[in-house]
Design a protein that fits this description.
single chain, seven-stranded mixed sheet, four-stranded mixed sheet, 13 strands, 23% strand, binds adenosine-5'-diphosphate, binds magnesium ion
Length: 345
């Protein structure tokens, strides 16, 4: 028997109906939220330094809806902002979500997107306090603003690294990029033959890295518990090489990273090889891992050295060499502004 899938059009509800439908699924849990959705603006009462960040996600540029489930998209759209708040060593508390969608989307599709947003709001303990809703002639645009706070003594910027500070990376790198390659491949297979089932059973980890990343707020809380304040920090959204360049430039210091210390998951490694890609290049230049790159004083090493998910990849260096990579063979490769390409032609 054929199952009927319910579909309601957006214009059945109109803009205000849609906003009501969205807001009734959300509750405010933060004491700093004085007034949430429903008035001309939200009101917050935050005592520390306020941290604000915005990201825009554009269909066809940042995501492809043919393999990106809307619920995951809602979740990820929040996560990328949580990651930026984390990178300031701050704690997030509110978000606003602005959405432009064409009427090819049903009400159920919008519900699905907000289910993802809601689940991220619970996971990261933030309130949805506002946004804007518009129609679009073509494509989906999502803009999220996140608000958080950090006391003056805990603020961490890109610019604080000093000579000999240790470079640390959380988690593992390159997975999200490899996951994207798998999804693109299966899309092409499907377009060529819609009866083919996608072969992704053994690619769960990398596909998950692309579709359902997490921001490393867990690490921020652990660093606080251990009383470690990084000297500089940045989140890895564009690839490690590019973020290293930022740290180096803002801290006005060179740095050296050791190829053999780069954390790469087995599935990432094997799938990269399967795609004829160099795993090291993927770890350096693949984007969207949303891990943290930070520096610590040598004196703090003892407190972190046994941490299972923090890897020590190199150190800041005041010599004139600039930022670079020491390969397994011991040679020096200068990192380039556009990132570094292992097999550059
Ligand atoms: P205005 O015309 O003053 O911009 P809107 O009608 O756009 O007001 O919004 C009314 C309320 O609903 C505001 O609190 C706004 O922040 C909130 N809002 C609008 N769109 C969204 C959305 N997509 N998600 C969450 N809140 C929204
Ligand atoms: Mg508005």
């Amino acid at each position: 028997m054929e199952k009927k899938i319910e579909r309601n059009e957006l214009d059945e509800l109109g803009e205000f109906g849609l906003i009501d439908r969205i807001s009734k699924n959300f509750t405010n849990n933060q004491t700093s939220t004085i007034l949430g959705i429903g008035d001309d603006a939200a009101i917050l009462s935050i005592k520390d330094n306020i941290v604000v960040t915005t990201d825009i996600l554009t269909e066809g540029i940042h995501f492809d809806l043919s393999y990106f489930p809307l619920k995951h998209l809602g979740y990820k759209a929040v996560v990328v902002n949580m990651s930026d708040i984390a990178a300031m060593n701050a704690i997030p508390s509110q978000i606003t979500v602005s959405l432009a969608i064409s009427n090819r989307f049903s009400l159920q599709a919008v519900d699905e997107f907000y289910e993802g947003v809601k689940s991220a709001c619970s996971a990261y303990n933030v309130d949805l306090v506002g946004g804007d809703t518009s129609s679009s002639a073509a494509g989906v645009f999502i803009s999220i603003t996140a608000i958080g706070s950090v006391s003056k003594k805990n603020v961490v910027k890109r610019s604080g690294a000093k000579d000999k500070d240790i470079l640390c990376v959380t988690g593992d790198l390159g997975g999200a990029y490899i996951g994207l390659q798998v999804l693109e491949r299966e899309k092409q297979v499907f377009l060529a033959n819609p009866d083919m089932q996608p072969k992704m059973d053994d690619k769960e980890y990398v596909v998950g890295r692309q579709l359902k990343p997490e921001a490393r707020m867990d690490i921020i809380h652990e660093l606080r518990d251990l009383k470690v304040i990084p000297t500089s920090m940045i989140d890895i959204s564009d690839g490690l090489a590019s973020e290293l360049m930022h740290l180096s430039k803002h801290s006005k210091l060179g740095l050296r990273v050791f190829e053999e210390q780069l954390p790469i998951d087995n599935q990432t490694y094997e799938t990269a090889v399967e795609f004829n890609l160099d795993p090291i290049t993927c770890a350096l230049n693949g984007g969207e891992d949303y891990e943290l790159l930070f520096t610590i004083k040598q004196a703090d090493f003892e407190k972190l050295k046994k941490h299972a998910d923090i890897h020590f990849i190199g150190h800041m260096d005041k010599s004139d060499d600039g930022p670079g990579l020491v390969t397994k063979g011991g040679s020096w490769i200068a990192l380039e502004a556009q990132g570094w390409n292992h097999f550059k032609k």
